[in-house]
From TrEMBL:
CDD domains: HTH_XRE (cd00093). One of its GO terms (molecular function) is DNA binding. InterPro entries: Cro/C1-type_HTH, Lambda_DNA-bd_dom_sf. It comes from the Bacteria. It comes from Cupriavidus cauae. Residues 17-71 form the HTH cro/C1-type domain. Residues 93-111 have a biased composition (Low complexity). This is Helix-turn-helix transcriptional regulator. SUPFAM superfamilies: lambda repressor-like DNA-binding domains. SMART domains: HTH_XRE.
Length: 133
């Protein structure tokens, strides 16, 4: 497996967090420490070896300067467009690189304003009825 490959078992939200972490040149230990979880727990979640609790996901998002935002599916495109408009067109997904046709998750993450890279929403605008990434 090359250094940019994402493990097959990783959940889509953690795939995006992994890509964002790498784009920011952070180590798993850095994110785990900021999130208040063990490196092993973060590694298992990011690699898909474990199905982490929502609290682990939220802590990892906060450690990366992201805020989880739940939006109605029919407004996902508008929410993502708004995030990009307020962030110079940058979204977390565009910072992380192409998603490779990955499935969407049920939450959109927006920058909390404290991130150093200025990453925005976790996904690109999608059609009506699709879930934000």
């Amino acid at each position: 497996m090359n250094s940019t490959a994402v493990p097959r078992g990783a959940s889509e939200p953690f795939r995006q967090l992994r890509a964002l972490r790498r784009a920011r040149k952070l180590k798993q230990e850095d994110v785990a420490r900021k999130a208040g979880i063990s490196r092993e727990a973060y590694l298992r979640a990011e690699s898909g070896q474990a199905d982490p609790r929502m609290s682990t996901f939220l802590a990892a998002c906060e450690a990366l300067g992201l805020e989880v935002v739940l939006a109605p599916q029919h407004l996902a495109q508008d929410v993502n467009a708004f995030i990009a408009s307020r962030n110079g067109g940058v979204t977390a997904a565009s910072m992380a690189g192409p998603a490779g046709g990955a499935s969407a998750s049920s939450a959109s993450s927006a920058s909390s304003g404290g991130g150093t890279s200025g990453a925005g929403g976790m996904g690109t605008p999608q059609g009506e009825g699709q879930k934000p990434v």
